[in-house]
Amino acid sequence: MNKRYQVFISSTYVDLKEERNEVMAALLELDCFPSGMELFPAADDTQWEVIKSIIDNCDYYVLILGGRYGSVNKEGISYTELEYDYAIKKGIPTISFLHANIENLSVSKSEKTDLGKEKLIEFRNKVQKKLCKFWNSPQELGSVVSRSLIQLIKTKPAIGWVKADNVLTADSANEILSLRKKIEELEKKDDFEPKGTEELKQGYDFFNLNYTFSVKDTEKVNSGPFGFEDIFDRGQSYQAKSKSINWNDIFYSISPLMINEATESDLMVSINQLIESKEKTEIEKNFENSITYNFKIISEDFHTIIIQLRALKLIIKNEKKRRVDDSNTYWSLSKYGDNLMTKMRALKK
């Protein structure tokens, strides 16, 4: 069933108009309903009851905190902080976004009184005790809100909203329940190797992995010990080598990154670290007075690893809707891959 979520955006008003617009655009791209204080820019105690009812009807709460504490009630507490405290009290899934460098903000976007600055700092300290992210520009804020909300929806699913004609009938609910039971039965079989992968290299089969690394010789230029041509520049050399690594070691190394999801860049960094951990000590024995660094798998072999793990049905490509400016490819563990990782890495008595 296609759900849409209502998200309350809480912030000071005048100084964060551009930032709120970016956040609302990000929410609309995720098919969410944004709502919040822009409906009541001149908050007072009478409107506070209305605001609370709006928060009650929201699935998620987003706080944007810049350099101002905001308008306060008779007790000297800002309405932004009141909204935040109320959302926390009601147990609404909440995530906050704090400006990373409030000291660099213009005077018009900063607190002018010592009391206001003191209350802002206290509020920021309170917010940082729970889930929060940081931002420096409106564009960066829109991007980080989009990524963070996707993850929040995944980890803390809310009720959401559906069109009236999509509401389940009793027969539909019973059918779904029956299908869920069948899925549970199938999931019990996920410990077994998927069909169609028997002829593929896997487990303790080896993969000849090619990589490059750099050597820095602080005393003199040496010829390469592996028979490869060295290109030296200011005491640095570029080397190429290969290493046979079994598929279990590769999957063991990168699988935790994909418990939720990971970009291909994240996976490549992990494989580079695996190569360095296996090769660095032995290689440096052949290079006196030198250091080795910058271990990198060649692109073709990296893509072979991704294709092989996908063919083994250990990983799946994520097809979630993302912001237009996010061109990354994301990978997650399949159910079978998650079970295999748990078997390989979970500590036993």
- Count of structural domains: 2
Ends apart, CA distance between termini: 43 Å
What structural class results from the helix and strand content? Answer: alpha/beta
Do you know the CATH architecture of the largest domain? 3-Layer(aba) Sandwich
CATH homologous superfamily assignment of the largest domain: Toll/interleukin-1 receptor homology (TIR) domain
CATH topology of the largest domain: Rossmann fold
H/E series = EHEHEHEHEHHEEHEHEHEEH
- Which band does the percent of strand residues land in? 15-25%
The major pleated sheet works out as: 5 strands, parallel
**Low-confidence parts:** 221-234
Helix content: 25-40%
Strand arrangement, major sheet: 2-1-3-4-5
Task: Give the overall shape.
Answer: flat
The Cα radius of gyration reads: 27 Å
Number of strands: 11
Helical run tally: 10
- Name of the CATH class of the largest domain: Alpha Beta
> Mean of the pLDDT scores?
85
Structure description:
The protein is an alpha/beta fold and 349 residues long. The protein has two domains: 6-155, Toll/interleukin-1 receptor homology (TIR) domain (Rossmann fold, 3-Layer(aba) Sandwich), CATH 3.40.50.10140; 206-345, Winged helix-like DNA-binding domain superfamily/Winged helix DNA-binding domain (Arc Repressor Mutant, subunit A, Orthogonal Bundle). The protein has ten helices and eleven strands. The protein has helices at 17-29, 45-56, 79-89, 114-127, 138-155, 170-187, 247-254, 264-284, 299-311, 335-345; strands spanning 6-10, 33-36, 60-65, 94-99, 132-135, 206-217, 236-246, 262-263, 290-297, 315-317, 330-333. The protein has a five-stranded parallel sheet, sandwiched between helices. Strands 7-6-9 form a three-stranded antiparallel sheet. Helix 2 (45-56) packs parallel to helix 3.
